[in-house]
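Let us practice reading a record.
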Amino acid sequence: MDPVYLDHNATTPLRRDVLEAMLPYLAIGAGNPSSLHAWGRRGRQAVEQARAAVARLLGCLPSEIVFTAGGTEADNLAIKGLAGLAGQRRRIVTTAIEHPAVLGPCRALARRGYQIVHVPVDGDGVVDPDDVARAVDGDTLLISVMHANNETGVIQPVAAVGAVAWEHGIPLHVDAVQSVGKIPVQVDDLGVDLLALSAHKIGGPQGVGALYVRQGMAFESLLHGGGQEQNCRAGTENVAGIVGLGRAAELVLAEWGQAQSEWRRLRDRLEVDVRRAVAGVDVNGGAAARLPNTSSLSFAGVDSAALVASLDRSGIAAASGSACAAEDPAPSHVLLAMGLGPERATSAVRFSLGPGNHAAQIDHLVAQLPAWVAHLRRRGH
């Protein structure tokens, strides 16, 4: 069988339609979008068309979209940028299961004297909005809660957290990098003020993302220079990359529903068949609402990195956790926060589906797994 790619939460391969939309801006190029001549106007028009497409995907105004170099920059811009204008408020309320793109800037602010409160989650990895409400006080400048976890796919009750934020007059930032394109993400329904997304999670190019900024929100830019992106993000725009993000957003809207239903069917088939074929397999977060494409399975007595490497030899791509922490041998902070022991946390493998996956690939995975798991268990890995 051809190689089987089951690591779409790390990155979804660039879609052909997206590449074709980008090629004119790569092969021929476009002028600087800030220039006034015809070449510059061509670049500006392309950027604004993409901005409108992303806005339609999120249900917001085009003027509320700020293009960035990816989801990590978008998260940093939201958190550090808001802290830069927060005055005397020094408290940020977040969760114990956030992506490193949120935990990292929070740690950086902690070194500057900010207080970071990590609200716990339950055994399925879900945060309780009441716990968030109890964690905020008059010194709180921001609440930051991810929409869906990148490792387990567990969906957080963001709308309920948004109600808490609204009641207390505190801005809400949401990392929606994994949820956009997989479940509906409408900013007004969620009650968010800042929301990060990334192109390469929805079939767009790597190195491009966006931050939704609710109209009237003010924050300090991380990059100082020109007045690009409404003075929120200095630097000449990556026209081809932004065009790719816009086209990917259009495809998500055009194909909505069909792909998500197929991913859920394949995900459920994967979990049922793997557990039939291999003993000692647990689904992490399986009792919670999850993304339709994501499955985190722990294989008792097996080191996840060794199993991922073994599957790679069979032409199957999976992951032992977040791609951003792939070289870190420590157990997943997400699974530990859910109350799982280190042994189960270090035996977890993530399978994430996307465009191009089909039933025969799941059957191939299930056929390969038993021998590899038995081999690693014999070796004590």
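A brief commentary: The domain at 4-12+256-379 is CATH 3.90.1150.10 (Aspartate Aminotransferase, domain 1).
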